[in-house]
Amino acid sequence: MTRVAPLVPAESDLLCEFCGYTLNGLPDGANCPECGVPVTASLGQKRAPPVWESASSGGKLSSLGAFVKESLFIIFRPTAFFKTVTTRGDVARAARFGHVHWLLASILFGTAGWMHAGVFYMSGLWTARTFSHAIGALLLTMIAYLGLWWTTWAAVRLTAWEAAYRGFRLPLPVVSRGMYYHAAHYLPVAIATFVTVAGYCLLLRLRVFGPDTLTEYLYVLCAEVVAAAAYLFHTYWIGMRNMMYANR
Ligand SMILES: [Zn+2]
Hints:
Layout: H1 51-54, H2 59-76, H3 78-84, H4 91-119, H5 126-131, H6 134-166, H7 172-182, H8 186-205, H9 214-241
Helix pairs in contact: 2-3, 3-9, 4-6, 4-7, 4-8, 6-7, 7-9, 8-9
Residues 16, 18-19, 21, 32, 34-35, 37 line the site of zinc ion.
């Protein structure tokens, strides 16, 4: 079977933000011939660079404020963020945002992993013995950080490749910049994991839970892994879907 590859629109093409139709040459007062939304709605006036990128000149304190503000916006209103953010912009600045989030999440994952290993210390498993030491927490943090970095690297390339294959305009810099902001979504996952593990360890120590609850604890962790994967894929998709027809 032969396949006619759909053509990826050029960077200079004006796309309808709502259906992806090419609007080149239409007057500003016209409507999209495909979905009927006014052409003016696709000109990108609604998109602005994230506060995080414009705060770079204001010193450390305003950078911290912008980081917190941007993170809350992305976590609580992902659709609004990806609908109003410029898709072409400072990738290096976005990378710094992403790396800080990977590091924050990794510290929480690393600490949770270290406590989790402590719960199973008596089992004699080599993983439990290795990672229940302080150096284990550091090691797990590093593994988590490199893991997040590598996973994102692979996801960026796969996304750009598949988008090009399907004829969507999602070049590498756009996808990677989007993924650096998507990194904020690791924070709720890392907090949930940390609270579960730390809470369970505390309740074990207080003897509220006995060792007979280990299986239930592992079930809860497994359920969290599944929920986290679904949440991260859902928010990733919100990002890509709201960036693939963007003109700015
Ligand atoms: Zn349209």
